[in-house]
Amino acid sequence: MENTFTPGPWVEHNGQIYAENDKNGRTLAIIPYYEKTPEQDANARLIASALELMDALEYLQTMPNDPRAHRAALDAIAKAKG
């Protein structure tokens, strides 16, 4: 199955999620910051980490006994949690 989403890495800045290498600067998602809260920051981090989480899970799925796959998954989870 072909990936149809915007290639990463995705990054978060001031509540906006965008593709770091997108030369057009298109925003992928906006987390409204009426009042900046820890929950909104966590949501933005989670969304920005989605591609790395998916890559880590696919790596783990194809190489379940490889410690590097487990490390990649743990690193992606840690990034998503902040």
How is this structure best described in words?
- The chain has one domain (10-81).
- Strands 1-2-3 form a three-stranded antiparallel beta sheet, covered by helices on one side.
- α2 (50-62) runs antiparallel to α3.
- The mean pLDDT is 88.
- The chain is flat, with a radius of gyration of 14 Å.
- It has helices spanning 38-48, 50-62, 67-81, and strands at residues 10-13, 16-19, 27-30.
- With 82 residues, it is an alpha+beta fold.
- The protein has three helices and three strands, in the order βββααα.
Characterize this entry briefly:
The chain has about 80 residues and is of the alpha+beta class.
SSE blueprint:
Layout: E1 10-13, E2 16-19, E3 27-30, H1 38-48, H2 50-62, H3 67-81
Helix pairs in contact: 2-3
Determine the N-to-C terminus distance: 31 Å
Q: Helix share of residues?
A: 40-55%
* Residue runs with pLDDT of under 50 for 5 or more positions: none
> Structural class, from helix and strand content?
alpha+beta
* Beta-strand fraction estimate: 5-15%
In total, the number of strands is 3
Widest β-sheet, arrangement of strands: 1-2-3
Treating each run of at least 4 consecutive H or I residues as one helix, how many helices?
Answer: 3
Radius of gyration: 14 Å
